[in-house]
Amino acid sequence: MKLDGKTPKGPLDDKWTNYRSKMDLVAPNNKRRLDVIVVGTGLAGASAASTLGELGYNVKCFTFHDSPRRAHSIAAQGGINAAKNYQNDGDSVYRLFYDTIKGGDYRSRESNVHRLAEVSRNIIDQAAAQGVPFAREYGGLLANRSFGGVQVSRTFYARGQTGQQLLLGAYQSLSRQISLGSVKMYNRHEMLDVVKIDGKARGIIARNLLTGELERHAAHCVVLATGGYGNVFYLSTNAMGSNVTAAWRAVKRGAYMANPCYTQIHPTCIPVSGDYQSKLTLMSESLRNDGRVWVPKNKEDVMAIREGRKTGNDIPEGDRDYYLERRYPAFGNLVPRDVASRAAKVACDEGHGVNSTGLAVYLDFSDAIQRYGKSEANTMGNHSPDAATIKRLGTAVIEAKYGNLFEMYEKITGENPYIFPMKIYPAVHYTMGGLWVDYNLETNVPGLFALGEANFSDHGANRLGASALMQGLADGYFVLPYTIGTFLCNEIRTPKIDPNAPEFEEAETSTRARLEKILSIKGNQTVESFHRRLGKIMWEYCGMSRNAEGLKKGRQMIRDLKAEFHKDVFVPGTQTEFNPELEKALRVADFIELGENMMVDALDRNESCGGHFREEYTEEGEAQRNDEDYTYVSAWEWDDDQPILHKEELIFENVELKTRSYK
Amino acid sequence: MDLILKVWRQKNNKDNGRFENYKVKANEHMSFLEMMDVLNEDLLAKKEEPIAFEHDCREGICGSCNMVIDGRPHGPNNGTTTCQLHMRFFKDGDTITVEPWRVKAFPVIKDLVVDRSAFDRIIQSGGYISVNTGQAQDANAIPIEKDLAGQAFDAATCIGCGACAAACPNASAMLFTSAKINHLGLLPQGEVEHSKRVQAMVTQMDEEGFGMCSNTGACEVDCPKEISISNIALMNRSYVGSVFGSDKGS
Questions:
Q1: Which residues of chain A neighbour B225 with C-beta distances below 8 Å?
Q2: ipTM higher than 0.85?
């Protein structure tokens, strides 16, 4: 199948405006007759459902949570980018576009990214109007901070809870549409299949998680905003419930999975502390504005620290290796996430890791405390402050900026980060890959759309900080509500879709059979234990660095694990009741297949780009892209034996492909 | 560390429910929920039914987790959700009691899982600013005083977990409701609908079967986000104002 990205013709700056102005519309009286299903209520899903409701469509919205407000967008800490140039520091739509393309290592579609940069400005306006309490300056105007990989200050934030506040804004909009009756909300419902009629997506099979009942929901089209698949690694910063099932079920019905191997490993997370651990916690990237990353130069110091005989504070300045500042003097501690993560791995692989597992580096605020302390004392007219005064004043500044993060760190580790340098290590955080979509955010299955982290479209091989919130809301508020019309304008004469159609019957029957089969195994191993093993395989062979041999081995291990899972998993209870273990089992089964797809994709891509680092393709220790052979999107058609690769060539008309250097 | 857990088990809403005792081996680095994971793995190994409990982000922001631990919603530490509570705050040999939220408006679904959809309905009744997508003006067109924005933020930080109602002897939802009313009402964008919003949300809160406030202050103490009880006073003032038309709540 030839993949058509449907990028409009014309100059980059005008594509979206022209396209939007000339596209076919659905008249208000016809919108009332059209049904749309939205699955997921994170930033992308909630914003899409509420906006579609405002426009007059009949919307049915689904979440597996007990409330739409719990979606994992809520946990995003740092901020949201927008090309407002409120700081007058040279930002523009083009610069945000360029930074995103470059940050993504030239593996994303120019037209989509430019549109994202354009609508970024509307998002901030919309959110402020909804009452999102963004940080402000004394003059009452909005404040900004900077994030990794860029040289302007364009990140809007709400303390360390930006995702929470933006999600609550979208949730409140959604709640308003629910109260008006334009959106019907289904909480505690999990989508378990997509139903296709004559090749078009016409509904879903959802399981009512409280009763176990399988329900048929029909609509003229289906929108998936079901998030990313980072939990394939078991340990990640994702919420426990985040899963790939909705997207993977779409893949099983013919949708293509694009670039599944592009995963983002976030450099600043709290290190793993034991085998029982269920998840990893992110420390916002904004900390790298003031924190310096280092490890001890000498192995004796490393051993002394690991054995508890020394702390980071005992290591003299000359014996510390500030490796990011040493290797990347231009960006220093603010290099993009993929670069910072790999550098931490190198430092630990060489034996310089600073906790008992050997997998941690320091993030140290003592210099920032000194700098701020002196400046504060100066402001107060004290020009020769003593050390204690400097420390006290500097600590207060750090506390005002990052207080909630420091508190969270102390709660989890039991160590005071104002006194001892933080220990951090990279962890899986975000997945750039996802369902393949064209410029309309429509998958290769007509009438099936994918938004937010669930699609692959905007971040290429690496996502810059504060861009996930931007993309989710761009897709939901300002892109899909227009582009969905390109499909629906041809459906105005289509009557209501009949949930008794044979296609619904088939989908419900096969879903029920799948549930019964998994319950009937009654083996001896828990779902959790399989998930943990899957995560270990993924991390070992498809994690921060990969090589062909390991990927082949990893793929085989996953296939073996899949066979073992379907022979020996134990799931208690029945399907006609509230059964969290059954929910988990279905998700893990899908993760296993996705894991295999990731290995296949990583093996196909014989280059290093962004979050995909192949050990065979490096130049002086840095990632080496191969633009000649790999400037394409890999879109995989699933097959149990051998997935089939479809390529979408990426065409760059406006930016020159360069080696991504932060040195 | 060896612990005895006294956990509330209840098959469904019709079942009466009872405490069951379990032995569990934990270590001090675990979070409370990771300790519960260990217990559930033990139960599964014995082919027994695991304990159902809500959880998701495990970093204190989604508001899913909800256990009453030794009589206190979210356990012994202030400003902490259940998922952020670590076992280093317990001692070897401790017996720990774990119960669901006990609130009439939050019926038990199973074990420790309750139905908190009443909170969604309170928000649906008016907890929003009526602005359609695309209607917004430039974000910097409305300057907002930094301290005022901070005050609105303090109220907006509510995670909707329901600990306030669980802590309250009257099972009142006034802290939750007032936090949303003040988050929106303090901001110029939200002031336009303030009176209408206060009336609608308070009415919905009452219809859901939550009790009234008698100023015990338990909600504020157990709120994991430490939302101030002064929000309730402010809401009451706005409510009276909205009834008699003399106050816009600002």
A1: none
A2: yes
